Fold this sequence. Notes:
With 466 residues, the protein is α/β, with parallel strands linked by helices. Helix content is 56%, strand content 8%. Bound molecules: NADPH dihydro-nicotinamide-adenine-dinucleotide phosphate (NDP).
Amino acid sequence: MTQAEIGLIGLGTMGAALALNIAEKGHRIAVWNRTGSVTTEFHATAGALAANVVPTQTLAELVQAIREPRAIILMVPAGQAVDDQIAALRPLMGKDDLIIDAGNANFHDTQRRSAEAEAAGVPFVGMGVSGGEEGARHGPAIMGGGPKAAWDRVAPVMEAISAKYQGIPCATWMGPAGAGHFVKTVHNGIEYADMQMIAEVYGIMRDGLGLDAQAIAGVFESWNQGPLRSYLVEISGKVARAVDPDSGAAMLDVILDSAGQKGTGRWTAIEAQHLGTPVPVIEAAVGARNVSSRLAERKAGEARFGAGPQKVDGLTQTDLEQALMAGKILCYAQGFTMLAAASETFGWGVPLPEAAKVWREGCIIRSDMLGDMAEALTQDDKRNLIFAPAFAAHLEKTHNALRRVVAAAALGGHAAPALSAGLAWFDAMRTARGTANMIQAQRDFFGAHGFERVDGGAGKHGPWAM
Ligand code: NDP
């Protein structure tokens, strides 16, 4: 039998879709799954693609089915499962054989695994894959990290299976160990923020403007024809349009308002804090998911203090559209600044324009705006995106709408933490004389931490009356 070009472990939602995608692009793939019957079933239902799939029932069989030097993709849950699989696989593999962890690993784990692989003299790649099941099946965005030579070996397959933006593959090497998973983590943080801001605007339309789900669907559909055109705005229109077959009610009205998370948004917020780079919109989005899950407390709060959201006056749909645009620009500006900070701290050399380009298609945050961001970063990847001429002009046009929306939300009792955080950051970023002088004075008062003077004079400590 012809040997497979590549292998894959973990035929769950993502692994199965990715394996079919690889087979469809003409690359023979050997697969193995912990539960053997899943492998058998996968092969039996692969249709015409089954000819390009080699099902295996043991790890040894999997390894033997792949031609040397081998490359095996892991698509199992992040964490211990990855370590266990690596430990089980390595003794069966040769020195040049490559393991690619394509799950949502924490980049610290990827750095550790990369260091372990390097010490053992074997190649390891950590690879972020975005786009959910549909993306994995028909074209995800792929962010590779690890030794460049190892990535180059598998790049042709990754490029073939990835999404294409105007014919350009959305699969790129982001830098050495950990860089790929870090870029994916920031992608997910931005995804949390994008989703949260859409949810906040949805809430204002529902509770503030009194629009029903069908009307809200119409608004999202119309926004998706303009500058906000994006996958998330598109699917927001679709979910608002959907009707529950059981009750006939709008699907949105029967879904509990308690959001789940797997942790990548939280990792973004945590790493941003470690790096000392502000991502307040993402932090607000992560916090909002946590608040959403405290349903009983929120019910008690409404009973004790009265319902928050009230009708709002004077807001137009254009205000909401522009507020979303401004919030999005601010959030992405924070995200790219964070990527730049991590790249510098870890010495990765992440190509920021390439990260923006990879996100233009296939992934959850794909949007028209990312094309413009890629262009702006190509012109100057050191500059905060809010200062890129195109985005500065956008912000000049939209920040007052963001202000009106945040003000109306605050007065009307609508929680809009992500939009508010974006606005506060924007205002802080255009305040040359801020208020941290008070903080410095307080720190000096209680801790003798010292301060610098505006006149450049030797200030050091204040004459505080204790
Ligand atoms: P699923 O739960 O659908 O599948 C998990 C797969 O891993 C199954 O094949 C399962 O095998 C196997 N597995 C589970 N535990 C172990 C273990 N301890 N040892 C070996 N194999 C194990 O997960 P997904 O496909 O959704 O996710 C896989 C990875 O991809 C995760 O890291 C996830 O975060 C990431 N990801 C997921 C996305 C999504 O939209 N779902 C998007 C992007 C990334 P078995 O059949 O035996 O249970």
